[in-house]
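Worked problem 6 (solution included).
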Amino acid sequence: MPVWTDQLGRSVSVPDNPQRIVSLVPSQTEFLADLGLDHEVVGLTRFCVHPDEWRFRKTRVGGTKNFKVDRIRALNPDLIIANKEENDEALIYELAEEFPVWISDVRDLETAFSMMLDVGGLLGRKEQAGAIVDEISSSFQALHSSRVTRVKRKAAYLIWKKPYMTIGGDTFIHAMLQEAGFENIYADTTRYPEVDLNDPLIQQVDCIFLSSEPYPFKQGDIDELGEILPQAEIKLVDGELFSWYGSRLLKSAKYFSRL
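Solution. The predicted structure is:
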């Protein structure tokens, strides 16, 4: 059985052309579909909303953090695709004692490309994965080339309310903000810190992005923050295009160019 190295450096024995795949990561589930897989994917999470029809034809195994181990076990997968950040570590390693579990660790565009090429390789879809990566890479190169100014606007990207939370410099969203041409004012923080609206730092921000996920910000939130931070341009943004690190990136560069 071929042995593959995942993005945590773990050696994983995966059978040739796996036929019973469980994906525990929404962005990677969509990528599997774009590689041309269908019947091979037997299980996914309730947050795997792309492609839409899979939600009604595949077994849903729970959330990304609280997936049901027994439900996955009943599917008898020959490959489970997981992620270091998005999935519960203890549950993942419990599954890894019984099944091949390939874990991604995506921090920026380059590690996203590595993930896609590696997954394409272990699924026998290397050429398809390479074509997707090439198209994404070209779109971001075009984005960078078309940028009129190199001066980056100071931005805050909010993902939660009550309390307000943002993204630190060690996140994939931070990397995407940089790709889009913005300076993350919370780059010196880690993970997902709380935001104090009275902090002088955010009082100097040029723009605030309110993500569509995991908290679904609305127009009312723009109005509320606008009264507190009148100097900032506040926009609702598509969280999938900032945080999904699979083939959804095919749409990200064009979206960023409009910001």
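Discussion: The chain has two domains: 3-105, 153-257.
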